[in-house]
Amino acid sequence: MGKIKIPKGFKVWYENLLTIAQKSPDVPPPLLQHISKLESTQLPTIAASDMSLQQTEMAFGIKQATGTQPWMVPHLFFTLPADFGRFLELYDTLTKSGVRNEAKSRCRIDALIFVVYRSLSEQDLLPNTGDSRATLSFETPFKWSPVPVNGVPHTCTGTADYTVLFGGRDHMACHMIVLEAKKRDNLSGAGQLLAYMAMVQANRKARGQSNWSVWGCLSDGWDFNFYFLDLEGNWSSKMLSSAVWGWQEIANTLAHMIIQAQAVANSPLRLSLCSAQGPATRPSSVVSSVVKGPIALERKSASETAEPPAKRQRTSIGGSSALEAPGSVTSEVPSIGSLEIRLDEFLKESEAGLDRIAESD
């Protein structure tokens, strides 16, 4: 069981709301009793590696696309070095009598990733510095909640073998490519890989990114099953075997994924998270797991958001979000049961408390 950690900013807001509710004679006792128990809520956990493809599709609301997808069209970004095939041959000779395990597969995958990265860098197609730089990460932890499994909210967790992170912040929403290594002749694990990809997608949607496409790959070092999860939650895959297609197309498919993921990683925040034209965002993972209607006010530091400094994003009582100029205060009067509360005064008090917390940290 994983206990939900409620952010400090929410606690300050929540304590102010609870104080007002306790002093008001208009709040029904059942409601007061319910909101007093929020901090003790726990969710059961489920490992992504234990999820079948069907479970992942149901839990994250994704499905398999039909037909050939545009990303499957072959691309040519570079020609593999002449010695790449020879390197793999020598490596296979060296490890011929070794056990066919995941570690052996990873060495071949490492060689492919390196040669693709080197070729793209030499062509200036992949910046090595700045907010667009790519970083190869190992054993990347993933966690997302609530995820419904058999009708019960869970926290989904796991550790991805490889991810490609774009930018300078190590945030789950920036890990645009997920790769899972498997031992020879075993490319099972689509449910696991897609769960990781779906967690990244859900995180990007919740943060208000305008593009939340995610890429992935299952490989044993000889065969590569590439995956793509699009904006509509439709996933597609393309299997390439080195024995059939050769390393040239495999390398260029990986290169295409990296270039596309880099462009998506730099996508701007949507102008309005509550716009009727934009896809619905996922509620806060902390709040939506304990109440049916999300009640959240989350304040993020500048280092945690990709928004322009002139504006900030705040989630309203009703669960929608809006972009406001700094210093502005919501004047909406929400109703909770028969209780009506003007937020202006205790929002200012909450923000002052947040500033004190930030200074103490």
From TrEMBL:
Residues 299-331 are annotated as: Disordered. It comes from the Eukaryota. This is Uncharacterized protein.
